[in-house]
Amino acid sequence: MQQRLDLFNISSEHFVGYVNKVDSYRVNVSSSNDDQLRKVNVNGYVIMNTSDPNTRLVGRIDRVIRLEYDRDETTSTDDSGVNNDITINALGTLKGPRSGKESPSFTRSVENLPEIGADCFLLYGEYLTLFTGLIADETAKSKTPLSLGTYTMAANAHALLDGNAFFQRHAMVVGSTGSGKSWTVARIIEQVAGLNDSNMIVFDLHGEYEPLAAHPNITRYRIAGPGDLENPNEDVLFLPYWLLGYEDMLALILDRSDENAPNQSMAFSNAVISAKKTVLENEGMVKELDTFTIDSPVPYSLDDVVNAITELNEQKVQGKTGPVNGPFNGKFNRFLPRLQSKRSDRRHGFLFALKQEQLAVNYLDYLVEKLMKANDDRTPGVKIIDFSEVPSDILPIVLSLVARLVFQVQQWSASSLRHPIALVCDEAHLYLPNRMAADAAEARALAHFERIAKEGRKYGVSLLIISQRPSELNTTVMSQCNNVVALRLSNQADKSAVANLLPENLGGIQDQLPTLGVGEAIVVGDSCLLPSRIKIQKPEYQPNSGSVKFWDEWSKAAKQQNLALAVQNLRRQNSGQE
Asked: pTM, whole model, 2 decimals?
């Protein structure tokens, strides 16, 4: 009869040495046997005895050193003349079965450190499979755990994450181009879409997640481009200017270097408040009229605002000898053309080229329903929004508009009726940069995302940050991401940025990042009981993110590119095929 495996009674074949040094979270093990040393792998796992017979310390091998010394024949009985030193970082505690439980349990807290001379055993083979299975069982208490793939160290063991902790405490997916980052994100999105009441918005900056819309619980929208302004399809979204907050609107249209900027902002504020008041009065919205502010999402006419400011700009007042220029005469000579330029730019049509339906009070209800309605029989829960036609100079403002709207709706919902929603921020380094590198538009976007990062959990709003340049990301947002899925990173600055998010006893993990294969990731955080190297499972619906194989393409027979069609699309600002 085959002996039943027991993590508390590991076979002597797995013995590697004795503890000779104990620090706050680091343990050193000595081994004088070269055969034992050959079984030791950096980043492998060990299990060590502690003073409590019902607990074991689990650690990760950080370094292995082979030390030779001069043997003193009068005192030493060891003929090998070597003493191998293994440095181990403590990861957590394995507790034996308690009353009512048949199997051990693992916790990330380090409750007992081993004593000097304690036995240390390697976790590999069947014992490693048993241990990873235990981790999976602990994580799979949810009926539908989040599965990314399999453990690299135990290919037959599924790597499961705690979906609650993953989204409650925000998460990051980082990796260089071609490392498998988009696959990983697609894998996560697919599993969210498979849940009964899923609710997620994906900010797709390059249109690469379009294939995922084939999933029955995923839909895709596009921000209106220049070719969509006259006859938009059902999948086209407009984001009206009146949804922008006061400061956001000024960041879009005001030149702060203009000496008349304070007068311009004051006049614009007064004109907007007056225009919103007029709409509320005409709609008979008495309660709203008593409480509205300049930031209230109330439609207003930009024509009315322009007329009011133009009147100030041309105003004459009665002087001692006749009409003279008013106090604001000529102060808006630069502001008004700048505003008109923004309004007439067809690239900004989704903001300014609005029809009557987008200027109606109930358009906000329509937009919120589109963006935030959870999965049901008629509405897919995962919404991919294609921002690829939004100009890069206003992209931060536009993305933050959606994020702020979601956050505010959640904030003003009754807590008992609030349904959680996640925002997937693809290519986040493009609009969430460090404060020092942010321009006016990016600074306003940062303010909204930073607030979500710090307070979103209270209102059921989660962030999933995706980036290939973590070193360029805003540190406040990064610091709130307590889950990190790191694929291959070679740049030293990017590795350091990721290392800064890791606990001190896991800092050595950054050294693995350049060695990861395509589709391999290091997963660390609150959602993962054990820092793990995982092989990401291939998603069912693959994004359009594969790198072009230049050499192979150049080696094939000539493939004619329709350059005339491309030029036509460029002129029309429309990617449609004809």
From this structure: 0.86
pLDDT tens column, 458-480: 999 999 999 999 999 999 999 99
Structural domain includes residue 345: no
- The residues, any chain, with a CB within 8 Å of residue 565's CB and separated by 6 or more, are 577, 578
* H, E, C per residue of 275-308: HHHHHHHHHCCHHHHHHCCCCCCCCCCHHHHHHH
3-state class (DSSP) for residue 85: strand
343 Cβ neighbours under 8 A, 6+ residues apart? 302, 352
- Rounded Cα–Cα distance for residues 244 and 423 (Å): 19
Bridge partners of 467, per DSSP, are 174
Q: Quote the CA–CA distance of 188 and 186 in Å, as a whole number.
A: 5
The CA-atom distances, in angstroms, between 381 and each of 208, 230, 389 are 19, 29, 24
Domain match, 232 and 252 both: no
Residues 6+ positions from 500 with CB-CB distance below 8 Å: none
Task: Find the helix or strand (DSSP H, E) in which 573 lies.
Answer: none
Q: Is the pLDDT of residue 298 over 70?
A: yes
- Strand ranges (DSSP E) for 292-380? 316-318, 323-325
Mean pLDDT, the chain, rounded, equals: 86
440 within 8 A of 393, measured Cβ to Cβ: no
Q: Are residues 222 and 272 in the same domain?
A: no
The domain that holds 437 is classified in CATH as 3.40.50.300
The amino acid at residue 50 is: T
Residue 517 sits at φ, ψ, to 5 deg, of: -80, 170
Residue 18: Cβ within 10 Å count: 16
> 28-39 burial by CB neighbour count: b if 16+ within 10 A, else e?
bbbbbeeebbee
